[in-house]
Amino acid sequence: MSPRNSSPLECSPATDRPGAAAQPVRLRAVGTRKGVAEGVPSGLDPHPTSGPRILAMLHIGAAGRNAMPTAHSWCSCGRDLKAFGHQQVARLTDDHTRHRTTCPLLTEGKEAA
Question: How many H helices and E strands in the chain?
Answer without folding.
Answer: 2, 3
